[in-house]
Recover the amino acids of this structure.
């Protein structure tokens, strides 16, 4: 089904490209990743309006990213957990003798 010309196709807000932003989904035209929006929402506790203001996004862009996150929560949270584990591993200090 095609979207009528008077409506905005929300599917056009999110893209994903190999080699860009580590292959993570992002908001088109901004480079802001969906996982970044999810962290601002779930960890930092920002409202969609606050996220839009903080990241210089439109409210529809934020809502599209949140919808994408909710539809793909397990995959996105798994990827975030892997990033945290890699960071923790890289920053571990060897024990002092």
């Amino acid at each position: 089904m095609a979207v009528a010309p008077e409506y905005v196709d929300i599917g056009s807000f999110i893209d994903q490209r190999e080699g860009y932003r580590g292959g993570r989904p992002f908001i088109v035209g901004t480079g802001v990743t969906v996982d970044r929006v999810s962290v601002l929402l779930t960890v930092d506790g920002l409202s969609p309006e606050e996220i839009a203001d903080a990241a210089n996004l439109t409210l529809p862009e934020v809502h599209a990213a949140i919808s994408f996150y909710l539809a793909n929560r397990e995959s996105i949270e798994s990827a975030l957990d892997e990033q945290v584990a890699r960071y923790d591993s890289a920053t571990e200090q060897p024990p002092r003798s």
About this structure: The two ends are 67 Å apart (CA to CA). The first strand starts at residue 14 and ends at 15. Strands lie at 14-15, 26-27. Residues 32 and 55 are 8 Å apart (CA to CA).
